[in-house]
Each structure stands twice: as C-alpha cells, then as structure tokens.
Amino acid sequence: MDVYRNLIGGDLVPAADGRTLDSVNPATGEVWARVPASGRADAEAAVAAARAAFPRWSALPALARGQALRRVARVFAEHAEELARIETTDNGRILRDTLHKDLPGMTVLWELAAGQVLDAVRGDTVILGPDTLGLTRREPYGVVVGVIPWNSPISTFSAKAAHALAAGNTVIVKPAEQASASVLRLGELLADVLPPGVLNIVGGLGEEVGEALVRHRDVAKISLTGSTETGRAITRASADALKPLTFELGGKSPNIVFADADLDAATEGVTVNSIYTGNAGQVCVAGSRILIQRPIWEEMLARIGAAAAGITLADPLDPRTTMGPIVSAGQYERVRSYLELAAKEGTDLVFGGRTGADVVPALPGGYWVEPTLYATTDNSLRVCQEEIFGPVAVALPFDTEEEALAIANDSPYGLAAGLWTRDLGRAHRFVRDLQAGNVWVNTFRQMPPGLPFGGVKDSGYGHDSVLSYTREKTAILNTRS
Ligand code: NAD
C-alpha cells in the first residue's frame, strides 16, 4: 500500500491529526494508496509556510525564478513513466494519454513558463509631460491557492503552479480527494527542487481543507479547475475578502457536423478524440452533444457506432487499451443515474448503455461504462443540458446553420465547441457566434500550452497564464522636484 504525505514548508508530513483517505484504483475497485485527509491545521500550516517563503521568492530576479522552473521541467521528463503510471492507477486515465500526451506536454509547459518570467515583470513607461513619467509595475499576488480536479491532476497542477510561480507567487495546491497520488508524488520529487514553502501540496476533502484554504485571510488569489457548483461555493466563501478568482469549470460542449465535412475526420473527431476514448468522457471539454446535419444523420450515427465498436475497454495500464473506467464509485453511480434518466426522458438509445462487469469481465470490480449514444430532437432534456462527465453523448439533428447555432448556444455552459465543415465562411461565422471559450474547426480537444484556455457562462471566467497571476500598479513621477 503506497502512503503519500503533504508537502508543507519543504517537509513531507502526514495530516496533523494523522487522518488518511483511501485512494481506489477505479479499474479494480481496490484501495491501492492512502493520502492525507488534511484539515484546518494543515491549511494553516501551508498558508504560513507559503507566506513566509513569499518575500524571498518574489524578490528573486525573474530569470533566477526561470532557472528554478527549468529544474522542475526536468523532474517531469526524468520521472515521466513513474508519474504517468501513478496517475493511471489512481484515476483510470489510460497510460497512452498520461505517458505519451500529458507528461511530455508538462515538460513543455514548465519550460514555456520558465521562458515567460520576464513577462511578469514587464511594465509600461508613459511620458506624460516633460517632467512627468507614468510607470506600470506588475506584481505577484502573494499566496495563491490552486484547487484541482481528479480527471487530469498533473496537467491542472502544472497549469496553475507553473504560471503562479513564474510570476513570483508562492503556491498551495489542493488536489482532488478521488485522485491526488500523482500530485502528492510530485511533492516528494519537488521537495528539494524549490525553496521550502514556495510550493505546498495538501491532500484532503474539498469541504474540509479546501474550504479552509479558500476562506483563509492570507490567501490572496484562488484558481479552481472543477465543477460549476464548487465555483459557486468558492465565490461565496471568498466574497467577504473580495479575493480575485479564476474559474475553469464544467461544460456540455457541442460538436457540430455539417454534410460538407470530411466525414472520416469528423467521425474520429466526435468519438475518439472527444467523448469516448482518452478519459472515458471525463474531460471538461468532452463533445457530449453531437449535432448532425439531417442529410448525413443516418450515415453519421452508423459511422460513430462503428468507431465506438473499435474502442478497447480494459486495464488502463495496458498500452493497447483505448478507454478506461470511471474514476470513482460516486461518479460511476452518477453516470449510471443519467443512463436511467435518458430512458425516462424518452431518448432513443443508438448504442451502448451497459455498465460494470458486463463490459470488462476480466476486471469485474472496476467502474466500467461502455461508449453510449442517445438520439433526441429535444435539446431541453436534462441529458442535453447537464454535464454527465462520462462516455455518454447525445446526438441532435439540425437542418440549417441558424438552427445548429441556436442548439449549440442553448446551454448554461460555454467551455468549448467543435465544428466540422469545409466551408470557410461558415467556419468564421461559427467562430464568431458560438458562445464558447474555445472553438475547434475540423479538429477537437487541442489545448496547446501557451494559448489561453477558459470558458464563458457557467464554464467560468479567466484562465491560467503568467499574467493572470500578476496585478498591475501604476506610478506617476513628477521628476522636476
Ligand atoms: P469538484 O468541483 O467536485 O472538485 C474540484 C476540486 O474542488 C477538488 O479538489 C475538490 O476537493 C475541491 N472542492 C470541492 N468543494 C470545495 C469547496 N467548497 N471549497 C474548496 N474546494 C472545494 O470537481 P471534480 O468532480 O473533481 O471534477 C470534475 C469537474 O471539473 C467537472 O465539472 C469538469 O468539467 C471540471 N473540469 C473543468 C476543467 C476546465 O478546465 N474547465 C478541466 C477539468 C475538469
């Protein structure tokens, strides 16, 4: 049994009161690790450590901070295999993705952040008059808290920590209780790489240590990647102190296929790279509503069904596996409740719908849901409006551009949207009119480091970047006296 500890002030420590949480391997349903169940005392200790480390870290020349971040990037490269295996064991995200996509991407992300340290200290000079000079300075906030979800712990950890540290903040990361082992292991690997207290990691429940951190008076900024409900809870908890917030929240993204599209590419784009493989639909940008133009409706349903039939559900550590399990018993029950709801709401089952040992008999304790597609003409159904966060999509037909746009935008969420067409004018119209933070045309789920990634409406606001972890100060100097 692997036992992980918090990283606080450079020390690897258990929760102050010794409590732990079980971490379950979702492919087997078995407990494989224990993580700290931190509470208020641990939150206090982490904030004190981050606060103590802030003056020196923020005063360090920016290029020296960049050097430190490059050392972190090397840790990702040197321990890629180990970290990928831990994350795959912990949350079921297939090794193909953790090892071959996420970890190489993290090395790039940390190196890119290291190269952006000067952006965090770059200001404007404005000559306001012969003896009057205007200056702007960018400054770090101080102690930053990053709250992250379970579906991509290493990626979301990096998006927050790398940028916040590059800007001169000190950081506390709170990984999700369902899957925090990879981030806690990173804490072990980074304990001697960064000065004590500059990066702190505390595991535990959102309503305990998470709440204690976001309420803490010495926390200057919070960045959450998680559900819309948690975004609302953090807004309420931090309202009195008017803390600046960045929210990357849920989604119900439309993937829109026009009859003129390259249908081979579109089929791959709406199935393999969108809702089913990778993380079994447990991605914030999952294209969970597939809008199909009527002339190709039957053909696309058949194509999507054939592509889904080619997906291999099995042990996520096996490199041949193309789809893994649902992360936890709780999330598994939630996804299953939506399968029941889809039937109650009168949708047509196109394929899928089986769960558990029927799907992967070799691993009967795992939380398996097979790729599932429903069809309906009613976008107001709950299965079309609510985020399911599993390998469950709904297909909706449309005739015209206007109708497709109306269905796409008829959602409380606005994280991402995909468009499949060869018509350049239409592509530009949809890029302009889709209410989403990210629009992909003839591609899907591309989130290269260095480009903004955020949402609109209930999907949140802001995004993680070096500049987002700085605030600006203006100075006016009268140089005559
Ligand atoms: P969640 O909101 O339940 O939990 C996210 C994190 O918030 C966890 O660390 C949790 O412990 C913490 N938390 C919960 N309540 C808290 C509170 N009151 N105070 C402080 N912290 C609290 O989300 P989840 O189930 O872990 O992740 C799935 C959700 O995340 C989905 O909605 C998904 O769309 C979203 N997500 C969004 C993005 C994005 O970039 N937009 C990326 C990945 C996941």
From TrEMBL:
Keyword DNA damage: no
GO terms assigned for molecular function: aldehyde dehydrogenase (NAD+) activity
Keyword annotations: Oxidoreductase
Leader peptide range in chain numbering: none
Gene3D superfamilies for this protein: Aldehyde Dehydrogenase, Chain A, domain 1, Aldehyde Dehydrogenase, Chain A, domain 2
Active site, per annotation: E248
PROSITE patterns in the cross-refs: ALDEHYDE_DEHYDR_GLU (PS00687)
Enzyme class: oxidoreductase
EC code(s) of this entry: 1.2.1.3
Domain spans labelled Aldehyde dehydrogenase: 16-469
Family, as annotated: Belongs to the aldehyde dehydrogenase family.
Name recorded for this polypeptide: Aldehyde dehydrogenase (NAD+)
Species the sequence originates in: Thermocatellispora tengchongensis
Lineage start: Bacteria, Bacillati, Actinomycetota, Actinomycetes, Streptosporangiales
